[in-house]
Design brief:
Blueprint (H helix, E strand, L loop, with lengths): L8 H5 L14 E5 L2 E4 H18 L7 H21 L6 H19 L2 H8 L3 H27 L5 H10 L7 E2 L2 E9 L4 H20 L4 H8 L22 H8 L10 E3 L2 E11 L2 E9 L5 H19 L5 H8 L15 H6 L12 E2 L6 H5 L11 E4 L5 E12 L2 E2 L6 H27 L2 E3 L16
Antiparallel strand pairs: 1-2, 1-12, 3-11, 4-8, 4-10, 5-6, 6-7, 9-10
């Protein structure tokens, strides 16, 4: 398989290797459109490539300097084209991320003075350089995504692609599991929700009375993505938020705190920090209903009794799921588990990606109870949670174990389709790239080694 063109430029530039850097004589070594590439940029990037290779245990005969220069050329071209095409990025979120990274670097080195001494420049220049490179990387990534997102593939193209592959080129599909489940949400959910609302109302009163919202978020919020940041979320439009959350946020003035808001993730109180255009910055505290062992015991007893009825053949597992399961995604299919909940959580509405076979790493805690089962066996009931973190009790029936195997078109169409699509996207991107290289001004200093460029069109 050819090396993917996608380059993680943003993450590399936001994690500069400051310690022990050697100062190099700087000069412009390449120009793409209106953008210059400095020799120091190539050196810094090549060091990060070497570090990344070591981390991944990957070796390459290709010169890191040559690879770094070609990657930077590609980024600059994509960046310039993004400006021409009026591609938009969330510059506020980029700036905020840079500030957080610089703060982390200061904390690691002990002081601003230590950071400035390590970098050989004042902190405002460090931030400005990182912000410039991060924004360029974001523009480049958005431009590349725009090009590739327009590429689609037909079943006929997938089949033709599959037929061109030698057997040793086909991917190995790991072991997969097909299973069914019966789930129950706690019967005391109404009381638990009320307790959660009351806890959040008490926290709201504490904030109004002078307590710090961010400290309460760090102590109590159940949102792992924001709790450590004091509940703060990046700037984003209302369209990127759950509707009840967005509706409440849209009514707030800076520093105002919402009432208790219920979403599919639980209950929130929200504080608006800032608003710029259609971009909102806020912090929130998320709590989910919690239950006592006594409350959860009722569902364990119910499912254990139901398991006995199934084992005594008084009811089938499939019929029991239809009649008793609380899982809206599987109950009408006799409990057969699909990835529909995952697709909904991640906003993927393409039903062509629907599947019922799961890899071990996709099963989470379910695998702990599944690994000792044989096809047809039913687990004992156990406590679990859905993808949004809501507490539930379930039992599972293992239907089939699909052994690891070489991918085939008949059994693994989605995997083959994804590989075929990636190849087509890469082909289309290379065609686009070569066309733009020809049309855009590109100059490379003769002192730079270009002999190991993958795309020779850069050399004019």
């Amino acid at each position: 398989m050819r090396k993917t063109i996608l380059v993680a430029i943003i993450s590399l530039f936001l994690a500069p290797q400051l310690k022990g850097q050697t100062v190099v004589a700087d000069k412009v070594v390449a120009v793409v459109g209106n953008s210059a590439i400095l020799y120091s940029d190539v050196v810094d990037y090549s060091k990060q490539i070497v570090a990344q290779r070591k981390e991944r245990g990957y070796t390459s005969d290709r010169s890191p300097m040559s690879e770094a220069l070609e990657s930077l050329l590609m980024q600059k071209l994509l960046y310039n084209q993004a400006l021409i095409d009026s591609i938009e990025i969330n510059a506020m979120a980029v700036s905020e991320n840079v500030d957080k990274r610089v703060d982390a670097m200061i904390a690691e080195l002990g002081s601003i003075a230590a950071l400035e001494a390590d970098a050989g420049k004042p902190v405002f220049e460090i931030k400005a350089d990182m912000r410039r490179m991060a924004e360029e990387g974001q523009y480049a990534q958005m431009m590349q995504n725009t090009i590739m997102s327009g590429v689609t593939i037909t079943p006929g193209e997938v089949e033709r692609f599959y037929n061109t592959l030698r057997t040793d080129m086909l991917p190995i599909v790991p072991e997969q599991y097909v299973y069914a489940q019966i789930t129950k949400f706690p019967t005391s959910i109404t009381q638990a929700k009320q307790r959660t609302r009351e806890r959040l109302l008490e926290m709201r009163e504490r904030v109004i009375g002078g307590s710090r919202f961010d400290m309460l978020a760090r102590m109590y919020s159940m949102d792992p993505g924001s709790a450590l940041q004091g509940g703060e979320m990046d700037y984003m439009p209302l369209s990127g938020l759950e509707k009840p959350f967005a509706d409440a946020l849209s009514k707030l003035q800076p520093n105002q705190i919402s009432g208790v808001v219920e979403t599919v993730y639980g209950f929130h109180i929200i504080q608006l920090i800032d608003k710029k255009g259609d971009q909102y910055k806020c912090r929130h505290i998320l709590l989910r209903p919690t239950f006592t062992d006594y409350e959860l015991a009722d569902d364990l007893k119910f499912l254990d009794s139901l398991r006995t009825e199934i084992s005594e053949q008084r009811i089938t597992f499939e019929q029991a799921a239809i009649e008793h399961s609380d899982d809206k995604y599987s109950k009408q299919n006799g409990g057969l588990v699909t990835n529909h909940e995952m697709l909904e959580v991640y906003g993927a509405n393409d039903t062509s990606y629907s599947r019922t076979a799961f890899y071990k790493e996709d099963l989470g805690r379910d695998y702990t109870y599944m690994r000792t089962l044989r096809p047809g066996d039913i687990s004992a009931p156990f406590q679990s949670a859905d993808m949004r973190g809501n507490t539930l009790t379930k039992m599972i029936k293992l239907i089939e174990i699909i052994p690891s195997h070489t991918a085939s078109l008949s059994n693994d169409y989605l995997q083959i389709e994804q590989i075929a699509l990636q190849h087509k996207q890469q082909d289309e991107f290379e065609k686009w790239l070569n066309k733009k290289i020809s049309a855009m001004y590109v100059r490379i200093d003769p002192m730079m080694d270009t002999s190991e460029f993958e795309n020779k069109n850069w050399i004019k």
